[in-house]
Amino acid sequence: MRLNSPALIGTIAISALALAGCSSSAPAAEETTGLSVIASTNVYGSIAEAIGGDLITVTSLITSAAQDPHSYEASAQDQLALSKADLVIENGGGYDPFIDTLLSAASSEASVVNASEASGLLDPSTGSGTEAETGAETEAEAETETDDHEGHDHIEGFNEHVWYSFHGVEHVAEAIAEQLSALDADNAAVYEANLADFTAEIETLEATAEALHADTEGLGAAITEPVPLYLLEAAGFTNRTPEEFSEAIEEGTDVAPAVLAETLDLFDSGSVALLAYNSQTASSETEQVRAAAEENGVAIVEFTETMPDGADYVSWMTDNLSALSAAVK
Hints:
The chain is an alpha/beta fold. It is built from 14 helices and ten strands. The radius of gyration is 20 Å and the shape is globular.
């Protein structure tokens, strides 16, 4: 099946997370209502709000396109906010290490939800990604050591961008509801009801992704970084990007010339029908890949790591799926 061409279909979400670890801090402290919840990014803040509703006050430390979780420098204001939190939600997996630094320095006894662990995507026996969820043959055999490049303390073989996995997010929401219910037993029924509503919305997203398989069967996709990989696989695409390319882009290292040539050939040879472009990691190599996609009439869909203003998690992912659908129609 031919994709719409030339190129750019459905630019999604906000512009990229920027370069280095901005000194921006959490919003000024406001009077809180109910339980205080600190989330590393607005993605997890949105999920928490869906579960807690008016019974909680959520502060997301990263809400801007100019803040990179990998290198974010927490402020004294962030430390104060976290010290007063009842619940802290982090992505984990090496994605937002500043949260662990804050927790180590805090005197708080806050409960913590680690999304990477709660999602079920991180194999507890090996510390790497589960084969069933990553769909990557090489990742199932990955070493368990961490891979630290330019502040990116990744777990080898694990795609830490777990919020792009609907199944993973269901488990994260369950963990949040469980913690809120433990902290506020009088309102446990409310949290469980909100969880049921949120889960129903996630199931709708899963069904939408599954329905795309009729149009994506046999289609390959290229990525500049693994950010949206869970979603692409759920929608039926097969990732054909050389692992060395996306790994180098994610870690901010140079792409070997032979690897770049192999990646560019995906477009010249017609091996892929879609480029999932993460503008957060734009570089000369990713721009060459984008140009190759445009020259060959391959659709480009942009994905980013924080939500656009005015969106919540479900509406954001609905837009992501709509863009993918438009690309294959």
